[in-house]
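Progress note, sequence design subtask.
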């Protein structure tokens, strides 16, 4: 979680400085979580499947061509062609800055759990602070290191129960369906 929040914080800071990044497909779709997709194989495979391989047959019944459902959405978002949509570019860039500011404020709010995971403010569970064993556990590389999570994270009882559940699930073998 710490890595994802650090990457999102960095992305929101970039958008805060340059609202037009909202329209930069490479930035929005490829670079924000690149560090995770390069090191976590299942995440990389998921992204490749969702954005490159997962296709649907066309509505007209043509079984020869598959289309990616998100292609048209991505094209409309990053390469608008309608004049009325193109006229809102400046407004959307400004809105992107406002949204980035709001997300950063929420991430850093000490009354919320996310601030504990941010390296920029030395959050108690941030990648900057936790041990290498805990980092490995977070990547699922060393499942034995997950057990101490509950002891280290002195969370209120409801959250502790959730952490116990996740630790229990992580120790089980994956179930294959179908």
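Output:
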């Amino acid at each position: 979680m710490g890595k994802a929040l650090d990457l999102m914080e960095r992305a929101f800071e970039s958008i805060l400085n340059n609202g037009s990044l909202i329209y930069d497909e490479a930035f929005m779709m490829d670079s924000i979580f690149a560090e995770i997709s390069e090191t976590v194989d299942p995440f990389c495979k998921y992204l490749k499947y969702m954005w490159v391989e997962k296709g649907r047959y066309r509505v007209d019944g043509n079984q020869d061509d598959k289309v990616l459902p998100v292609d048209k959405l991505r094209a409309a978002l990053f390469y608008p062609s309608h004049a009325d949509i193109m006229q809102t570019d400046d407004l959307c860039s400004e809105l992107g800055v406002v949204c980035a500011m709001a997300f950063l404020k929420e991430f850093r709010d000490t009354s919320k759990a996310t601030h504990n995971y941010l390296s920029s403010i030395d959050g108690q569970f941030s990648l900057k602070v936790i041990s290498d064993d805990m980092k490995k556990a977070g990547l699922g590389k060393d499942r034995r290191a997950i057990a101490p999570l509950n002891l280290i994270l002195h969370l209120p009882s409801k959250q502790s129960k959730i952490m116990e559940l996740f630790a229990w699930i992580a120790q089980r073998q994956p179930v294959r369906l179908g």
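The chain is about 60% helix and 0% strand. Work on this subtask will continue into the next period as scheduled.
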